[in-house]
Amino acid sequence: MKTNNVKHTLWSIMLLISMTTWAQRAETPDYQYDIGGKIHDMVITDGGTVVIASNDGLVGIKPGTNDLLFKFTNYGRVKPEELTIVPNSPYLMVGQTGFGAMSTKRAVIDYMSGKTLFSTEENGWKQVGGCHVIMPENKLVVSGQRRSSEKYVQALAIYDLDTGDQINLLKFKGTETVMGKPLLLNKEVIVPTTKGLIKMDLSTGNTIWKSELKNVGWMATGAQSKELYGFTTNNGKSSKIYKIDIATGNLLWEDPQKVRGKVVNFEITDEGLAVVSDVDNSGKSKLMKLAAGGSESKIAFLSKTNGEDLWEKAPKTKGYVQHFYIMDDGILFGIQSGGINKISFDGKTLFKKPLKTGENILTMAETPQGLIYITSEDANIVNLNTGDQVWKKPLKYKRADAISSTYDSANGRYLISADDELFAIDEHTGDVTTLAESKFDGKEDPTGVEVRDGGILLTSDQNMMMLNWDGNPDWHEYHRAPGKSAFGAILAGAMAVASAAASASASMEANRNRNVLGQYTYRGARYKNMANDLAGVSGASVAEMLKRFNATSATENAQFVLTKLDEGVGLVKLNKDTGEKEKEIILRDKKPVYQVDDWAGILYYQANDKTIYAYDLNK
Fold first, then answer.
1. DSSP 361-415
2. What is the pLDDT of residues 578-613, one digit of tens each?
């Protein structure tokens, strides 16, 4: 009888364990969040806040807290195309348009504090046509149609994004509307409209001057804010550049300068104006393409005095400009289809001949030996004055799907990983050797190379391999992938969109002088560059972002890998110096939906369609 009781008790315990395992899809989380609606998307922002889109709206999660940071349900479900995370800022925008343009809804949320800083409903707007976050001024410029109580007039307003307060409101007469992106100049703003340019005082709202230059899409100004340039385009087929006196609004050139295509890059230098415009002939017939030429970038250098082209002969590109840098002695540029050249400000070729390279120039940066370039097919260092090769011959490899590189300062060499080969290039002699052949499991190629205290670490999603300084493997860890993460694909798409938005912003914000060749840097350089861009911006949310940017990444000494463990699918934390497991989190799902904040070291896992679990991976 006692034996039967023992058996019954053991069976009950086993049943309880089985039921608990089935019900609890993951081990006890450090944090748990009830989203409310069915989850559709999740993005980890640059500031660390997790933004989740559900059937109900948007939800924000702040790392290391139990409560939701914000819940924005005003507009119901937010589709991916209706959400914009503004690059290099702590802000996101939501924009929805109904059946008619009059039903447009816009909102701006500070995703670091959770505050809704602007919405069409709360701020008196019926329709918003333009909504621009201006950094580093930390301002929001909104244009469109006011509500019925203000007789639906067209207007423009400027808001302080530190507080959400309205700084100024300008109302237009008749059918005049804002055409392009306004330009902030300290205590003044220049607004492009369908009837001209308007310069107004931000503190009083008074109009300083009005120009009849219509339909300007965007503007650029020099560092001293004494010269202003306005740009118009004819559906991207051609563009016109105007020079305007900032003090009076008068046109300073007798005629605008016309260039083919759409202006995508513009720099004001002491010697003149550097202009890059893209000509797209892809939609033309074969006969028209033959007459008009191929799709390519055009480079021009204009006089600041009268707008005339200072070069007798423009440099040939035969493709789109992928890299464009203003140097002390001229302009350095790289073409996406291959090729690097350098032109002096007076139009002379500084390189002995155009440098031939492989397609898709991934890296152009300065080193003590010269300009290093890395493409999908080759790499080299060249003399920036002559274009001569520093390495005896370029490093060439088959067109690689995965390329990464770093500098090994202790051994005075550059390391380039291309597919399954690791090349070492002596920085003094340029001698190239194959340091190692990295055969990774799971049909993976290395996607990262990192110099550690004890050797060279090669990594991919599921592999880690430590090489000694001679290229021989010390250890190799492989953890088989259980399946693709849906959130991983979502984040990759979101990052691609953000990257495209940042590129577009860089080309339009010409007065920010972004076209400066940087030094060859290590991992984490992106956050450091963003921190430099935001260093002068006031506001608690920006300050909080800067703390994250300047902190040490959680992946500095660890890598997180999703794999199949003894108890089911889970995430493992691996030490980068030893390859040993430091932590395991069992998720149980065969294809878990999750995302890892590499910087803060937090795993976000969708436990069910309305719940997110978070695990601190630093413990």
1. EEEEEEETTEEEEEESSEEEEE-TTT--BSSSS-EE-S--S-EEEEEETTTTEEE
2. 999 999 998 877 788 888 898 889 999 999 999 999
Does 291 score more than 50 pLDDT?
Answer: no
Q: Computed over its alpha carbons, how large is the radius of gyration of the chain?
A: 28
Judged against a pLDDT cut of 70, whether residue 503 lies above it is answered with no
Q: Given this model, what pLDDT does residue 26 score?
A: 62
**Has residue 41 got a pLDDT over 50?**
yes
Give the rounded distance of the alpha carbon of 484 from its chain centre. 24
Q: Which helix (H) or strand (E) holds 32?
A: strand 31-34
Residue of 123, 166, 129 whose CA lies nearest to 144: 129
The count of other CB atoms within 10 Å of the CB of residue 411 is: 13
What is the reported pLDDT for 489?
38
For residue 549, report the phi and psi dihedrals to the nearest 5 degrees.
Answer: -60, -35
CB neighbour list of residue 121: distance below 8 Å, 6 or more residues apart: 74, 105
Residue 25 CA from chain centroid, whole number: 34
Kindly give the pairing relationship between strand 455-459 and strand 463-467.
antiparallel
The pLDDT score that the predictor gives to residue 170 is 87
Q: Band of the pLDDT at 505, cuts 50, 70, 90?
A: very low
Neighbours of 156 (CB within 10 A): 23
The answer to whether the CB of 295 falls within 8 A of the CB of 307 is no
Contact 355, 339 (CB under 8 A): yes
Alpha helices, DSSP H, located in 194-352:
286-292
437 and 419 Cβ atoms separated by less than 8 Å: no
Kindly tell me if the per-residue pLDDT of 209 is higher than 60: yes
Report the predicted TM-score, pTM, of the whole model to 2 decimal places. Answer: 0.82
- 271, 495, 500, 535 from 504: Cα distances, Å: 25, 14, 6, 22
Q: Please, which pLDDT band fits residue 495 given cuts at 50, 70 and 90? A: very low
Asked if 594 and 571 count as a contact pair (C-beta separation under 8 A), the reply is yes
Tokens of 491: 């984040």
Q: Please tell me the predicted confidence (pLDDT) of residue 85.
A: 95
The CA-CA-CA angle for residues 615, 616, 619, to 5°, reads 130
Count CA within 13 A, CB hemisphere, residue 458: 36
Going by C-alpha positions, the residue among 292, 296, 295 that lies closest to residue 276 is: 296
pLDDT higher than 50, residue 277: yes
SS (H, E, C) 50-74: EEEEECCCEEEECCCCCCEEEEECC
Give strand pairing partners of 154.
145
Q: How far is CA 521 from the centre of its chain?
A: 17
Distance CA 244, CA 253 (A): 8
Sign of the CA dihedral with 160 first, then 164, 170, and 175 last = positive
> Residue 474: CB partners within 8 Å, gap ≥ 6?
454, 455, 466, 467, 468
Instruction: Give the strand pairing for 413-418 and 403-408.
Output: antiparallel
Asked if 361 and 375 touch (Cβ cutoff 8 Å), the reply is yes
Strands annotated E in 495-610? 558-565, 568-575, 581-586, 594-597, 602-608
Estimate to the nearest angstrom the gap between the alpha carbon of 236 and the chain centroid: 24
> Which pLDDT value is given to residue 422?
95
Q: End-to-end alpha-carbon separation of the chain, Å?
A: 48
